[in-house]
Design brief:
By secondary structure, this protein is mainly beta. It has one domain: AOC barrel-like (Beta Barrel), CATH 2.40.350.10. The chain contains one helix and eight strands. The protein has one helix at 4-23, and strands at residues 31-48, 55-68, 79-89, 92-103, 106-120, 126-140, 146-156, 161-172. Strand 3 and strand 4 (92-103) form a beta hairpin. The longest helix is centred in the N-terminal third of the chain and has 20 residues, at 4-23. It starts with a helix and ends with a strand.
Length: 173
C-alpha cells in the first residue's frame, strides 16, 4: 500500500505536465509596436447628402509610407495604402476603413474606425484631426496569422496630405 503523501506528488506532476502539453503554456506574447504614417490622397469621391448644411460622405484612397517608432523595425519603410469612408457634418463625424502595410513579401491589413473633428484656429483656418482604434484582420509573410489591436491619432498637414501616429500590440497565432 502506498503512503498518501508520496502518491500525491507524482499525480500533481502528471496533471501539470498534461496541462502544459495538451492545453499549452501561457498565451502568445504580445509585441508592442508603434509608428508614424505619412499619406496623401490619390483619389477622393465626395457626395453631398443635402439633409443639413455641410453634410457629406466621402470615399478616399490614400498612399504613403510608414516609419517604425517602437525600435523593433515593425514594417519600417512599408508602403501604406489606406482606403476610407467618412460621414461628416461640417467636417466632424465618423470615419472607418482599411490600411494595408506592404514590405516585400510581408503584409498586414488592419480595419480601423474612429472620429474626425474640424476646429478653427485663432487665425480662422480649419484644422482637421482624427482618432480611433484598429484591429489586424489579415497578414502574410512573417505576419501570417497576425492578431492584435491599437489606437491611432492624426491630422492633416495640407488639403491632401496627413500624418497618423499609431501604437498597439500584436501576436502571431
Amino acid at each position: 500500500m502506498l503512503k498518501p503523501l508520496t502518491s500525491v506528488k507524482p499525480v500533481i506532476f502528471l496533471v501539470l505536465f498534461m496541462v502544459v502539453v495538451f492545453i499549452g503554456g501561457p498565451a502568445d506574447a504580445q509585441t508592442k509596436i508603434s509608428g508614424k504614417m505619412t499619406l496623401a490622397y490619390v483619389k477622393v469621391d465626395s457626395l453631398v447628402i443635402g439633409d443639413t448644411e455641410g453634410h457629406s460622405m466621402a470615399l478616399a484612397d490614400s498612399r504613403g509610407t510608414n516609419v517604425c517608432t517602437s525600435g523593433n523595425d515593425f514594417m519600417e519603410g512599408a508602403e501604406v495604402i489606406s482606403l476610407s469612408y467618412a460621414d461628416l457634418a461640417m467636417g466632424t463625424g465618423f470615419h472607418e476603413g482599411y490600411t494595408t502595410f506592404t514590405k516585400g513579401d510581408d503584409m498586414t491589413i488592419a480595419r480601423w474606425k474612429g472620429q474626425a473633428k474640424t476646429t478653427m484656429t485663432e487665425e480662422g483656418t480649419p484644422e482637421f484631426s482624427f482618432m480611433g482604434t484598429f484591429e489586424y484582420i489579415k497578414g502574410a509573410g512573417q505576419y501570417e496569422n497576425i492578431s492584435g489591436k491599437g489606437t491611432y491619432k492624426g491630422h492633416f498637414t495640407s488639403l491632401t496630405e496627413y500624418t497618423v501616429e499609431w501604437e498597439g500590440e500584436y501576436a502571431l497565432e
